[in-house]
Amino acid sequence: MECAWAAIRHDGYLKALYHRHVMKWGGYRSHIAKSKAIVVVAHAILVIIWHVLATGKPYGELGADYFTRRQDPERETLRLIAKLEALGHRVTLQDAAA
Hints:
Radius of gyration: 18 Å
Structural class: mainly alpha
Distance between the termini: 48 Å
Largest sheet: none
Number of domains: 1
Low-confidence stretches: none
Mean pLDDT: 93
Shape: extended
Helix content: 55-70%
Order of helices and strands: HHHHH
Number of strands: 0
């Protein structure tokens, strides 16, 4: 657990993972959300260590933008439109000026 708390203080994949799970379970005001998220980070560290020891290859940092890079832009657009419409807004899309 101590390693997980230290890992989330530095920009990278583990901090992004922590943020993603804290927001999923209630936000930064929720002690339970932060506790659950730190367990997820600790598990990720254990999986990383296991892979490094099993394969003998060094750890390759995925980067702080890992979760945003792997999103499909079209699918994300549709998700955000649906969310705005659920809040009672009418959405029309227009191409951005080049």
